[in-house]
Amino acid sequence: MNKRFVFLLYNPVAGNKSFPNHLDYFIEVFQNKGYEVHLFRTSSAEDFSNVFENRDVSIYEAIFIAGGDGSVNALVNSMIKLNIDIPLGIIPAGTMNDICYNIGMPMDIRQVIESLSVLQTEYVDVGLVNDQYFLNVCGGGLFMEISQNTDRQLKNVMGRVAYYLTGIQQLPNFKKLNLKISTEEQVIEDEFYFFIVMNGRGAGGFHKLAPEAMMNDGKLDLIAIKVCPLNELSVVFAKILRGNHLSYKNILHIQSDHFSIENMEEDYHVITDIDGEEGPNMPLNLQILSRKLKMILPPKN
Fold first, then answer.
1. Which Gene Ontology biological process is one annotated for this entry (predicted)?
2. Percentage of the chain surpassing pLDDT 70?
């Protein structure tokens, strides 16, 4: 009988550091299905290229990652750049786990492991910004600075609340963005607090940021909050939480397969973010790569 292999990369300190408690269960489930599990332990959202270059990845029927969205992003970038077309399964072991939410994966890790063991696959879209890939989100401005500036331990303990607390502290001193946003159909120049380009529906714990988005629709959704009186921002965030913000006066929403975003103030550095990690410098050239990545999704009933 020929051996069958799967490869699991895991970050033991991601999120609440609980995944090592489930490691043996992962091995048990896949061994019971006839697989030998190969492991790689990482402690950060690193470049995984060396991991793959030093092994024959063609033997694996699936690759799994247990970590946060940043680790997933690093793995996806390495896989695409090395032309590795092997099904990818994600275990939500980070703080936000937005990507898992967007593909309908349960948040209970044992349930996730059981779902992944079915190996039901589907191709999903991947975003490309300049020379970096993203699975869920690319953005800039206030909430992107929060994602990178919030203490990691605080994020692990308090989750989404940590982002809110940091945002409240930074908002009075935050510098607005003067942006030029272009698609093939239109050009918009305006002032914004932040912008976010979504492949999935949610980011940063806001599960309905782009309620019309799907990860296989061949489109990106741009959501941007226009500069407005601070007392109107509470209305904006309330609408975002409910998912009925897309047509609101202080929101810009555009759906396209390509965006160009320019910073019109050259002396101001705009911090950008890709899937929770530091992104490229402006200007940004974004496009969607349709059906670029084969993912393991929850079994359909």
1. phospholipid biosynthetic process
2. 88
